[in-house]
């Protein structure tokens, strides 16, 4: 076979593979949207679910998903940035560091149900936090840390050494170089990592069943005192997220419109992920521009 | 952006004190005595003793791997951060031994600025690139910073080209402009010595000409050490030339003497393009 026809064949093969991937993805999204979007209404995304009747919503679950995401990121991102800076800038090639890297790899491939059971034993029982948003947030932080650490480390490593030398040549210390030059330049990569992690938080169910729980107490959206038991912000209340809710009503939902609610919640979940994705990219770009241009 | 009248710049400077040391020549601002640099077991710079007179340009020439860049980088102690790199001998800056333990490394690098072979603008605005150093050293006032930025961009012959886009990203500039920006950034630290490591080798001829012109301007105020592979460039911009070979200085003298009447045959060979 001539080089030209090999090339054609390979190109055609690649197009076929890409075509399959796009068809599967578009089919999945289309299926979820076609079945789910007709269920969406303002009432659906704001009211609490009904247990026996039709016409319930997923308002608290939607709020819980976002709140859990915010708490998880507040815990995980600072730790990941610290660990990423350490691994990229300070860690020397030593057997302890190599062990840490292997452990991070192992942790990143840990099944989420195992993380959930660990969270149940440690945060729910041992720490005594019960089924709560806080337990869920810590479990998900644990679940996402390896990914975040690796993404932060990699985006810091991707900044060329010449940038560091340029900082040192201005008399900057190592730490000043990292904070004023390297981190701002690495920001787009870090934002991408945060987006990846958030997708995993939104979609996660297994790790939350045993940590954040499968119920939502009656919460009062006019009460924003985080210490009050009926406040949506109270981190010690159980909190069922959208993904957990979908899993639950498919298994044990006894409302007559369970299938419709599940479809609607699935579409809402995907829309939320897209929404978060675009806003965080937008904010990331804005921050980058702000640092780039005064 | 409107231009701001130049104001006197106040920066926290603690110039290191002039002290008498036995082998330091008063006329030179910078001097090395038997400076050797080792990478592991390999001796990259071998007992180099050079002195750099005030407000002059010294060109370091020699074939690749002859140790001239390593020598340059050891002057502001950039090699400190390289593992397995060891330095022996002395470097005097205004009479102070730069390796003595009570010398502040960051103060040294503030007074001995450096510009690298490839332009390395920070991923920030043009303004912030120049202001990075002064801000680090405590200049907070916005008007004062604007004054510093304007003054140094003018010194680096870049002001006219960028004065209307100070707040756009420095990464959008051309390579030659980026390199002049890096020079402005170094000048904003108010150094007295500038180390230039092949500053024009990655640039096109027009940008190179601008950089060379700039160097001739700058030597009125600064002591400049430049590493270059370009013989014509060395001849055009420098007052003195040191020819490096295998880590040693083979010959050091005035540019005119080195280029017209070199003492060592090897120097003549190199200048005429027979080595390297």
Q: Which stretches of chain B of 5+ consecutive residues score pLDDT under 50?
A: 1-22
- Fraction of residues in H or I helices of chain B: 25-40%
Q: How much helix, percentage-wise, in residues of chain A?
A: over 70%
Backbone structural class of chain A = mainly alpha
> What do we call the CATH homologous superfamily of one domain in chain B?
P-loop containing nucleotide triphosphate hydrolases
pLDDT averaged residue by residue of chain A: 86
Polypeptide structure, described:
The complex is a heterodimer of chains A (294) and B (276). Chain A is mainly α. Chain A has a single domain, classed as MetI-like fold, CATH 1.10.3720.10. Helix content of chain A is 73%, strand content 0%. Chain A has eleven helices and no strands. Chain A has helices at residues 3-36, 42-46, 59-90, 95-108, 112-126, 133-157, 161-169, 174-203, 206-209, 242-252, 258-292. In chain A, helix 1 (3-36) packs across helix 11, helix 3 (59-90) runs parallel beside helix 6 (133-157) and helix 6 crosses helix 8. Chain B has a domain at 28-120 and 193-271: P-loop containing nucleotide triphosphate hydrolases (Rossmann fold, 3-Layer(aba) Sandwich). Chain B is built from ten helices and ten strands. In chain B, the strands form two sheets. In chain B, strands 6-7-8-3-9-10 form a six-stranded mixed β-sheet, with helices on both faces. A four-stranded antiparallel β-sheet of chain B has the order 2-1-4-5, covered by helices on one side. Chain B is globular and about 55 Å long. Mean pLDDT of chain B is 82; it is low at 1-22.
Primary descriptors:
heterodimer, A: 294 residues, mainly alpha, MetI-like fold, 0% strand, B: six-stranded mixed sheet, 10 helices, disordered N terminus
Give the helices and strands, then pairings.
The complex is a heterodimer of chains A (294) and B (276).
Chain A: H1 3-36, H2 42-46, H3 59-90, H4 95-108, H5 112-126, H6 133-157, H7 161-169, H8 174-203, H9 206-209, H10 242-252, H11 258-292
Helix pairs in contact in A: 1-11, 3-6, 3-8, 4-6, 5-6, 6-8, 7-8, 8-11, 10-11
Chain B: E1 28-39, E2 42-53, E3 57-61, H1 68-75, E4 85-93, E5 96-97, H2 105-111, E6 112-115, H3 126-136, H4 142-155, H5 159-162, H6 175-187, E7 193-197, H7 205-218, E8 223-227, H8 231-237, E9 240-245, E10 248-254, H9 255-260, H10 265-271
Parallel strand pairs in B: 3-8, 3-9, 6-7, 7-8
Antiparallel strand pairs in B: 1-2, 1-4, 4-5, 9-10
């Amino acid at each position: 076979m001539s080089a030209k026809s090999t090339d054609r064949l390979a190109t055609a093969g690649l197009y076929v593979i890409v075509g399959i991937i796009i068809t599967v993805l578009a089919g999945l999204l289309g299926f979820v949207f076609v079945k789910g979007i007709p269920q969406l209404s303002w009432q659906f995304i704001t009211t609490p679910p009904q247990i026996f009747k039709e016409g319930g919503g997923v308002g608290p679950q939607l709020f819980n998903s976002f709140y859990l995401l915010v708490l998880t990121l507040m815990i995980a991102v600072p730790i990941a940035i610290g660990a990423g800076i350490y691994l990229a800038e300070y860690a020397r090639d030593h057997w302890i560091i190599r062990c840490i890297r292997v452990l991070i790899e192992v942790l990143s491939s840990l099944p989420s149900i195992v993380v959930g059971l660990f969270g149940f034993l440690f945060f729910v029982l041992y720490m005594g936090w019960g089924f709560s948003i806080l337990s869920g947030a810590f479990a998900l932080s644990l679940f996402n840390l390896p990914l975040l650490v690796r993404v932060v480390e990699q985006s810091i490593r991707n900044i060329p050494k010449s940038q560091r030398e340029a900082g040192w040549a201005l008399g900057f210390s190592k730490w000043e170089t990292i904070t004023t030059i390297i981190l701002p330049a690495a920001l787009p990569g870090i934002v991408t990592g945060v987006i990846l992690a958030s997708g995993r938080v939104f979609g996660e169910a297994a790790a939350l069943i045993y940590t954040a729980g499968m119920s939502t107490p009656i919460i009062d959206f006019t009460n924003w005192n985080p210490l009050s038991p009926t406040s949506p912000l109270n981190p010690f209340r159980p909190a069922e997220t959208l993904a957990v809710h979908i899993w639950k009503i498919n298994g044990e939902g006894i409302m007559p419109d369970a299938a419709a609610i599940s479809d609607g919640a699935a579409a809402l979940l995907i829309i939320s992920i897209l929404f978060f994705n675009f806003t965080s990219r937008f904010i990331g770009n804005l921050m980058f521009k702000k640092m780039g241009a005064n | 952006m409107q231009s701001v009248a130049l104001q006197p710049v106040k920066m926290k400077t603690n110039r290191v004190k002039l002290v008498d040391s036995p082998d330091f020549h008063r006329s030179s601002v910078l001097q090395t005595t038997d400076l050797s640099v080792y990478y592991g077991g390999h001796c990259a710079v071998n007992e180099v003793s050079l002195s750099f007179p005030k407000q002059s340009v010294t060109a370091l020439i020699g074939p690749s791997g002859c140790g001239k860049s390593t020598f340059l980088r050891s002057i502001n102690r950039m090699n400190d951060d390289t593992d397995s790199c060891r330095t022996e001998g002395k470097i005097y800056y205004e009479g102070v031994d730069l390796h003595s333990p009570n010398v502040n490394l960051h103060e040294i690098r503030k007074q001995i600025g450096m510009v690298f072979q490839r332009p390395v603008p920070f991923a920030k605005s043009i303004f912030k690139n120049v202001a990075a150093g002064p801000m680090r050293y405590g200049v907070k006032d916005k008007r004062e910073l604007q004054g510093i930025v304007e003054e140094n961009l003018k010194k680096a012959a870049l002001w006219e080209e960028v004065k209307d886009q100070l707040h756009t990203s420095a990464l959008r500039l051309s390579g030659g402009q980026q390199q002049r920006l890096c020079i402005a950034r170094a000048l904003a630290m108010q150094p007295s010595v500038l180390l230039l490591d092949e500053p024009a080798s990655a640039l096109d001829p027009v940008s190179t000409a601008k950089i060379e012109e700039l160097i001739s301007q700058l030597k009125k105020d600064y002591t400049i050490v430049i590493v270059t592979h370009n013989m014509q460039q060395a001849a055009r911009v420098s007052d003195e030339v040191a020819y490096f070979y295998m880590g040693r200085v083979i010959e050091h003298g005035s540019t005119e003497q080195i280029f017209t009447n070199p003492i060592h045959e090897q120097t003549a060979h190199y200048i005429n393009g027979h080595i390297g």
